[in-house]
Amino acid sequence: MIKVLLVDDENLIRRGLKALLKLENNLEIVGEADNGETAINQIENLQPDVILMDVRMPIMDGVAATKEIYQRFPEIKVLILTTFDDDEYVTQALRYGAAGYLLKDTPSEELAQAIQSVYKGYTQLGPGIGKKVISQISIPVNNLPQNWQNLTPREQEILKLIADGANNREIAQTLYISEKTVKNHITNILRTLNLRDRTQAAILAYPIFKKQSQ
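Above: the chain's sequence. Below: its structure in token form.
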């Protein structure tokens, strides 16, 4: 059972999230907080596994709270859930240790899956958020990454589409292959390049393909 702490200054939002997430068999809502400071004060008692964190809140906002939680309780995963996709909020939250950044229009089933994924150690970014992250990152590309030459031309095609922000279904439609085939290719890409997840793959590949297109 994954223990979840809800942090949002709007009571109606918290109630709605609680009602939706209670339908998931492997999620348990252990508490609520209306700002970052209150959330931090509850952590030792509640021992949450994942904190669902809003950004703009009084007293202590979600970005500042994420930074302190990551420093004091690094084993706890913070998943940002907000209406704001401002570049600065996104990059600061992830820099300070957030395990993911989603917008509040995320469907409930996808939110539940994201909570489970960050609990397992994966990074979760909502549509369009990945591009905001990698656009803020400057990586020298004098040399290709180790084992890049071991990728097949098809795998490089898929990696480019990942860097462009495409999901598995969009990749499958673009290349006229099945989603299962896409997943198999991505698994091999991650293994070949020694990457943890597709977010790392996108960050690695974006400057390479950007330079090639110039």
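The CA atoms of residues 121 and 136 lie 23 Å apart.
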